[in-house]
Amino acid sequence: MFRSLFPESPAYLRQLNAAGRERARALFVFLNALILISTAFILALNLLLKPLPTVNVLIAAVIVSSFLCLWLLHNGRPQLAGNIINAVVFSVILYLTYLDATGVHPLHGFTQTGMMAAGLALAGLFGSKRLPLVFGLVYSLTLLGLVFYLSSLHNWSALRRSTVEFTLDGIIALAAGSILIFLLRRIYDRSLAAISTRNRRLERFLSSLRRSEERFHRLSDASFEAVVLSQDGRILEANRAFTELFGHNADDDVTIEGLVSAEHRDRLRSLLNSDSRKSAELLCKRKDGSTLLVEARSSIIKNPDSAVRSVVMRDITNERKNLEQLEHLAYHDALTGLGNRKLLQQTTESILVEGRRCAILLADLDRFKEINDTLGHPFGDALLQGLAHRIRESFPAPFLTCRTGGDEFTLLIPDPDGENMVRDIAQSFSDAINRALRTDGVTLEMQCSIGASYAPNHGSDFEALFRCADVAMYAAKRSGTGIAVYASILDLHNPRRLMLLSDLGRMVRERAFELHFQPKVDLINHDIDGYEVLTRWTHPRLGSISPAELIPLAETGNHIGLLTETVIDVTLEQMRSWMPQFKPTLAVNVSARNLVDEMFPERVIQAIEEYNINPAQLELEITESAFMHDPQRALQSVLRLNQAGITLSIDDFGTGYSSLSYLTDLPVQALKIDLSFIREMIKKEKHQILVSSTIQLAHGLGLAVIAEGVENEDTARALRKMECDFGQGFHFGAPVPAPAIMRR
């Protein structure tokens, strides 16, 4: 019944939440019932003790006014309801006082006190605009207690004092109370308004914060990157991507450090201890034990009383694999898996920047185009793959093997120990390529031409070294030797070479060269057995030109034939000038071009006769390669020279082809072991075995043995033990001009 009087429509109730509205409604019902019961109780007492018609009317007025006030409260006008109650109570008190003063109807203390209690209760309970949720019950109970206390005082005063005095005191008390309640209500209303405003602002802020937090969670969950909020290494919150990435939930007993592998935890600590935004790549472990590589970015979120670390992690495992594949393709040949030119250039330049030495070997496959045209490109590709596999296995790190062209393989040698080492490795490189290779059921024996260059002699950058190796490779292909080390004379486009070629013919015609003589010493008695003649050319602008540069240049420019015959003529002239006091044997190198010239032997024999020289005093040194191009004509020339009594020897033995097959056919008296074997003999046991075997073989064929490149006594002593006949090198004497020989 009373509950229906208080729907949720009043404005002051709508400002409360659901729980507050329910409590306020219950309190209003309770107070309304209390008023009605109190009034009914007073009315019953008056009827039982002494009927007071006037009082009954007044009580009826109070009841009517109470319902009027409740109706006003129901319509959201509590202040008007309170004012009406105050007016009714004040009017009732004045009217009762008038009745008592005129004697029309004297009042007793109890009735006065009851009326005062009812009036004060109504004024106190309904005088405020609203009963707040938190303070309403306490405030109302306090007013009730005050009413009961004042009722006791009134009872005591009404029984001992006159009605007029009592009434005046009551009026004063009621007026003061009304004013006090009004003032307190104003203060309370303003405070409540301020609190309500702050509460509304706080509620709006909290609502905004909740919406922001919801947006943050939706945003973080929508992210593909794992987002973690951490404090002291503990994971406070994590988004959905974190769970999908690692298999862990934020509630799992796991720390950020526990996610990272042991070898990367120092990186993680550095990341978490930094005050700035940093990133790091970390190897992590999933819940199932699998590993992944993540890029982690960290930033600090500072609060007034604490700081939280935000860590964002992105899975870059596949990205890194793809990047490594791209980098591998960028620096490696797709067909063979060997390095490409870019990797070769980068590695070479890094070695040169460090001030180290390096060498480049460039191998070009001979007749590879014919293989492709005959057997097809798929077969050619399979052949290249097989060769690449063999080269890679033959030359592991620190060597770098590359494919720099369709049929070109390149080998980078870091820190080579001189040209001899480069030549040895070039020979091994050639052997690895030239061995028979079976591909798709077909066995082929490959042939290659290798050019070598090395820093700093042939260049200080990659392009220069690679160009020099390319020049040497084509020189090896033209000469048929298979291997060539770069020399400026080989470079067809070298300005120095062009200048030398233009002046070489004039030099030969004008005999603008000088002969130097290097002694050949008997290793047993240390006597000088003869001299090797070496040509020295001092160019007017380029200075001294070594034989290593002069002879290939003369062969390329077709001057070698005339140069050889001119040197022989000058040598015979020098021998004639020393006679009769000094009659040494002088050895002159003869090129392949001379041997294939049918008239060469006759011109030499004619010169010997003109100078009246013993033919045995002239020794002609012939290289093994001289018999490769036209062996029959070369053999006829050698036989004719031998018939004339000229001494013949094989020069640079061990570096040519088919050496043993010619030893039995050629009418030679000696062979010279190439200096590349002699210089390394002390350090390399295999070279000792080769030298010793060659000496025994030559002696078995009745040939004398001459060792080139003897540079110290240890080498000479070892050669004596091997019963080598003669030695030649700087240990016995450097090449000197003719006048210096006569002064010895």
Summarize the structure.
With 744 residues, the chain is an alpha/beta fold. Helix content is 55%, strand content 18%. It folds into 4 domains: 3-199, no CATH class; 224-320, Beta-Lactamase (2-Layer Sandwich), CATH 3.30.450.20; 332-486, Reverse transcriptase/Diguanylate cyclase domain (Alpha-Beta Plaits); 497-742, EAL domain (TIM Barrel), CATH 3.20.20.
Structural notes for this entry:
It comes from Leptonema illini. Pfam families: EAL (PF00563), GGDEF (PF00990), PAS_9 (PF13426). This is EAL domain-containing protein. Keywords: Membrane, Transmembrane, Transmembrane helix. Residues 497-744 form the EAL domain. The structure is a single chain. By secondary structure, the chain is α/β, with parallel strands linked by helices. It has 4 domains: 3-199, no CATH class; 224-320, Beta-Lactamase (2-Layer Sandwich), CATH 3.30.450; 332-486, Reverse transcriptase/Diguanylate cyclase domain (Alpha-Beta Plaits), CATH 3.30.70; 497-742, EAL domain (TIM Barrel). The chain is built from 27 helices and 22 strands. Strands 13-14-16-17-18-19-20-21 form an 8-stranded mixed beta barrel, surrounded by 4 helices. A 5-stranded antiparallel β-sheet has the order 2-1-5-4-3. A 5-stranded mixed β-sheet has the order 7-8-6-11-12, sandwiched between helices. Strand 9 (436-439) and strand 10 (442-445) form a beta hairpin. The longest helix is centred in the first third of the chain and has 60 residues, at 163-222. It is rod-shaped and about 190 Å long.
